[in-house]
Amino acid sequence: SAGGPREPIDLVRYVGNRSSGRMGVALAAEAKRRGAEVVLVYANGSVPPPAGVEVVPAPTAADMKRELLARVDADVFVMAAAIADYRPSNPETGKRPKDREPWTLTLEPTDDVLAELGERRRNGQILVGFAADAGEAGLERARQKLANKRGNLFVFNDVSQSGIGFEAEDNEVVLLSAAGEREIGRRSKGDTAVAILDEVEGLLEGD
Ligand code: CTP
Question: Which of 67, 117, 145, 200 has the most ligand 1 atoms within 8 A of CB, as the residue to mutate?
Answer without folding.
Answer: 145
